[in-house]
Amino acid sequence: MLMNGMEVSLHREGKPFGVTYAGKAPTVDALLNAGRNVCDVVALDLQLADGSRPGDNTARLISAGYKVLAFTVGTNQAHIHEALANGALGVSLKTEPLAETFSKLRRVAAGETIDEIQLATAIELDTEFVEANLSEREKECLALYATGFGQDQVALRMNIASSTVKTNIVRIREKFAAAGRPADTKIKLYIRAVEEGIVPPPQPLNKRLRRSPKGTAQ
C-alpha cells in the first residue's frame, strides 16, 4: 500500500519483482477506515497532505497490524527519526531505483529490518552516556552484527556457534538497557556501536542525496 505518487509505476512494474499493488490512501485515517488486512506493507510517505506526524502514523499502522517502510525524499531527518523510532522496518529514498524499493518492500513483508547505515544518522547519537562495559568479544560481535552481518555470518567470522552469537546479542542489549540506552532494533545497536567508538560513524545522509540513482555525482 503506497501513500505517495508512485502508485502507477508500482502497479505496472511491481509484479515482476514479486510485489503486488493493493491501492493507495491519502491519509492513515483513510487506510484504517478501509478495513483490516488491506495489505502486508505500507510504504508510508513521511509528508502527507493532512500534516500528520510520521511517528504517529507509523505507530498507528503498526498497532493495526501493518509493517511499515518509510518512503521519503530524505531531506527531513526528523521525519525519518520519528518513523524509525516508532517501528518502521526501513527507509526507501524516492531517489532510489524502483527495483531497490521493490526489494525493500519484499524484505519488510518478510519481517526483515533493513539496515540503512547511512540513514542511521537520522537518529540522534547520545553525546553523554553511561558506558555499557562490553567485553572485547562482545564488542567484536556487535561490530559485525550491527554493520549488517547475520548471526550465522558472525558465528563463522568469530569461529563460535550461532547460538553463542545469539546469547551475546541478548547480553549486549541487556547491558545497553541497564545503562539507560535501549537497543531493541538492529539500527539502534549500530548507533550504540558508533557511540561506543566500536564502529566508525556513517557517511552523512546529505552526501548520499547528492548522488544520482546510478551512483554518479550530480
From TrEMBL:
Annotated Gene Ontology MF terms? DNA binding
TM spans (from-to): none
The keyword DNA-binding is annotated on this UniProt entry: yes
Q: Which one GO biological process term can you cite for this protein?
A: regulation of DNA-templated transcription
Q: Which residues form the HTH luxR-type domain?
A: 131-193
Alphabetized UniProt keyword annotations:
DNA-binding, Transcription, Transcription regulation
What SMART domains does the record point to?
Answer: HTH_LUXR
What is one Pfam family matched by this protein? GerE
What InterPro entries does the record tag this protein with? Answer: Sig_transdc_resp-reg_C-effctor (IPR016032), Tscrpt_reg_LuxR_C (IPR000792), WalR-like (IPR039420)
* PANTHER family reported for this sequence: TRANSCRIPTIONAL REGULATORY PROTEIN NARL-RELATED (PTHR43214:SF24), TWO-COMPONENT RESPONSE REGULATOR (PTHR43214)
Q: What is this protein called?
A: Response regulator transcription factor
Q: Which organism is it from?
A: Arthrobacter terricola
The record lists the lineage as: Bacteria, Bacillati, Actinomycetota, Actinomycetes, Micrococcales
